[in-house]
From TrEMBL:
Chief localization: membrane
Protein known as: Bax inhibitor 1
UniProt keyword list: Membrane, Transmembrane, Transmembrane helix
Family of this protein: Belongs to the BI1 family.
Lineage, highest ranks first: Eukaryota, Viridiplantae, Streptophyta, Embryophyta, Tracheophyta
Taxonomic source organism: Eleusine coracana subsp. coracana
C-alpha cells in the first residue's frame, strides 16, 4: 500500500513539473511585452503576404521573355521599400510596396506552381502546409530559446549562402549537372531553414534595441518562407515524377 501511495505521489510530482515547465514556456519572460507585440504584428503580416503569393499563381502563363518581369518588379518593390524611411507617414506606402513585392514574387514562381498543379494538385497544398509547419516550429524554437542563443548561426549561414552563390556562378559557366542541382536543392533548403531560426532571433534582438520596423521584419521572414517553399515544392515534384515514371515502367512490363 505504501508503495502504491509513493508511486501516485511520484506521478503527481511529475505532472506538476510538466505543468510548471509548460507555463514557464508560455511566459516568455526573456522577451519584453513591447517585443512580443512587435512579433505579433510581424507574424500577422506573413499570412497576408502568403495570400498574395498564392493569389498570384492564378495569373495566366506568359511568354518566356516576359517571365523575368515579375522578378525584376519584385526587386524594384523591395528596393523602394528599403529606400522609404520607417516613418509613420510612410507606413501606408511601405505596406503597399510590401504587398506588391509578395504578389510579384508569387507571379515569378507562378510557372512552377502551374507545373505542380498539372502534375498533381495535392503537391502544391502539401508543400505549402509543410513549409508553414516548418516555419512555425523553427520560429517558435527561436522565440522560446534564450536571447542570442542562435545568433552564432549567422556566420555559418552566410558561408552556406556564399557557397550556393558560387555554385550558381560556376554552373552558369560550366553547365548544370544533376548532382550539383540536387546538392544546391537540399543544401539550400538546410540553409534557409537555419535562416528561419536566425532571422527570428535577430528580429527579437533588434526589437530589444528599438528597431520596431515590423514591415521590414515581415519581409525578412516572408523571404525565408518563399525560399523554403520553392525548394520543398521542387523536391516533392521530383519525387512525384520519379514515382509516376516507375509506375509507367511497371505497366509496360
Amino acid at each position: 500500500m505504501e508503495s502504491l501511495f509513493g508511486f501516485l505521489d511520484a506521478q503527481s510530482q511529475r505532472r506538476r513539473r510538466r505543468t510548471s515547465s509548460f507555463e514557464s514556456l508560455k511566459r516568455l519572460g526573456h522577451i519584453s511585452p513591447a517585443v512580443q507585440s512587435h512579433l505579433k504584428h510581424a507574424s500577422v503580416l506573413d499570412p497576408v503576404l502568403c495570400a498574395g503569393l498564392l493569389r498570384a499563381r492564378r495569373l495566366p502563363s506568359r511568354p518566356p521573355q516576359r517571365r523575368r518581369r515579375p522578378h525584376l518588379g519584385c526587386m524594384v518593390s523591395i528596393a523602394g521599400l528599403l529606400a522609404l524611411p520607417a516613418a509613420e507617414s510612410q507606413q501606408r506606402n511601405r505596406f503597399a510596396l510590401l504587398m506588391s513585392a509578395a504578389f510579384l514574387q508569387g507571379a515569378s514562381i507562378g510557372p512552377l506552381a502551374q507545373l505542380a498543379l498539372h502534375l498533381d494538385p495535392r503537391i502544391l497544398v502539401t508543400a505549402f502546409i509543410g513549409t508553414a509547419i516548418a516555419f512555425a516550429c523553427f520560429s517558435a524554437a527561436a522565440i522560446l530559446a534564450k536571447r542570442r542563443e542562435y545568433l552564432y548561426l549567422g556566420a555559418l549561414l552566410s558561408s552556406g549562402l556564399s557557397i550556393l552563390v558560387w555554385l550558381q556562378f560556376a554552373a552558369s559557366i560550366f553547365g548544370h549537372s544533376s548532382s550539383t542541382f540536387m546538392f544546391e536543392l537540399y543544401f539550400g533548403l538546410l540553409v534557409f531553414l537555419g535562416y528561419m531560426v536566425f532571422d527570428t532571433q535577430e528580429i527579437i534582438e533588434r526589437a530589444h534595441h528599438g528597431d520596431m520596423d515590423y514591415i521590414m521584419h515581415a519581409l525578412t521572414l516572408f523571404t525565408d518562407f518563399v525560399a523554403v517553399f520553392v525548394r520543398v515544392l521542387i523536391i516533392m515534384m521530383k519525387n512525384a515524377s520519379e514515382k509516376s515514371e516507375d509506375e509507367r515502367k511497371r505497366k509496360k512490363r
